[in-house]
Structure formats: structure tokens, C-alpha cells
Specification:
The chain is of the alpha/beta class. It contains seven helices and eleven strands.
Length: 211
């Protein structure tokens, strides 16, 4: 199925920004990048998804292993007891509880525009990663906690700017791994970070959408 993802500003990274831009997705691949007008003219019957703000490549979370195996992500039902923020010193031998934490951690990564996650992972975590559709990036040298000393689901904390945070540029023929953020431009995105994500697309599939 052909799908057009459109936004007031498309930031391909490695190429010029496209005001009132669009990305045409054919299955799991990018078929075209250009102005909304041109992309729609090329594929007038494609489904259109309109996003606010900016559309970028999906982001890369270098500290995925640490955030998924060393940090506990509370269940909303545990909020009264544990709060809602990630916990770095949570002590439990309950494997089921930790499995739930991994699933919630992955969903929270998707909610920050993350499509690529630094590994390597134990088999159980890797299986959860595969089910969520996230892509593992080998980076054994970054298994330690972030330099900030605190867990952070926002990839911009480690990546700094957009080019240092995305998994790679948007290119025709490449995998359709995209993220949309409700900000007006690149500077605002870097300043406000991944929490402004409104949608994440992995291999052409919409895997997260802010309600």
C-alpha cells in the first residue's frame, strides 16, 4: 500500500529541508521525497497521513541495553507505589515483572521517535525488541549509563543535534523509518527533544501515535 506522510517541514538530514514536504512510502521502503504537491501528483491514490510540525528519520537510542535491563519502567497500576518515572535502583527477582518493564520501556522509546536501539541484548530482551519492530544497533562500547548519570529516554540527550541523533538520512529506496514531532523547526526539536513526538513509523508501519 502506498502511504504519504506529510508535514509542514520535512528534514531528510543530509539533504535540504523540504517546506510543506512529504515522504511517499511503498510497503516498507521510501519511494519518493519532495514537496507535498509533487508527491501527491505522483501518487494521487495513496493514503495520506498529515502530521504537525516536522518529519524526520527515526531516532537512535544508544543506551538501549542499559535502559531496558538496568532500569525499571513502572506499570501505571504501580504509580501510587513507585511513581511513573524510570527507576534505576529497583530490586526484584520477578522475571515477569521485568518482562513487563521491558515492554513498557520499548513503548516509551517509540513515543520518543526511536526506531534504532543500541545493544547487544539478552535473548529475552532481543525477542521483545523484535516483536516491537525496533532495530538493534551494535554498540558494545556504549553499554555504560549515559554520561549525564541518569536514565533518559530522549535520544537527543546523547545525540545532541539532529544529525547526531537520527539513525541515518531519509533516502529513496531506504527503509521507511520515520518520526514526526510537534515543533516548528529543527532548532525547536533539538531544544525540546523527543518528548514532542506525535508519531513513529517503522518499516512503513505506524507503531506509535500520540492520542
Amino acid at each position: 500500500m502506498l502511504t504519504i506522510h506529510a508535514a509542514p517541514l520535512v528534514l531528510p538530514v543530509g539533504a535540504a529541508p523540504v517546506p510543506e514536504g512529504a515522504v511517499l512510502v511503498d510497503g516498507g521502503r521510501i519511494a519518493a521525497i519532495g514537496s507535498y504537491e509533487d508527491v501527491v501528483a505522483e501518487s494521487p491514490r495513496a493514503r495520506v497521513r498529515q502530521w504537525p510540525g516536522v518529519l524526520t528519520p527515526g531516532l537512535r537510542q544508544w543506551h538501549g541495553r542499559w535502559l531496558l535491563t538496568r532500569v525499571y519502567h513502572p506499570d501505571p497500576r504501580e504509580a501510587d507505589e513507585l511513581g511513573t518515572e524510570p527507576i534505576t535502583d529497583f530490586a526484584s527477582d520477578d522475571e515477569g515483572r521485568w518482562a513487563g518493564s521491558v515492554r513498557r520501556g520499548l513503548q516509551r522509546m517509540l513515543a520518543h521517535g526511536t526506531t534504532h536501539v543500541g545493544g547487544g541484548f539478552p535473548d529475552g530482551v532481543r525477542q521483545s525488541l523484535a516483536r516491537a519492530g525496533l532495530r538493534e544497533v551494535a554498540n558494545a562500547w556504549r553499554l555504560a549509563p549515559p554520561l549525564t548519570g541518569a536514565p533518559d529516554l530522549d535520544p537527543f540527550v546523547e545525540g545532541g543535534d539532529l544529525a547526531g541523533t537520527v539513525h541515518g538520512p531519509l533516502v529513496v529506496g531506504g527503509s521507511a523509518d520515520l518520526a514526526a514531532f510537534d515543533v516548528p523547526d529543527e532548532a525547536a526539536l533539538v531544544e525540546r527533544g523527543g518528548a514532542t513526538c506525535v508519531a513513529t513509523v517503522l518499516g512503513g508501519r505506524l507503531v506509535y501515535r500520540r492520542r
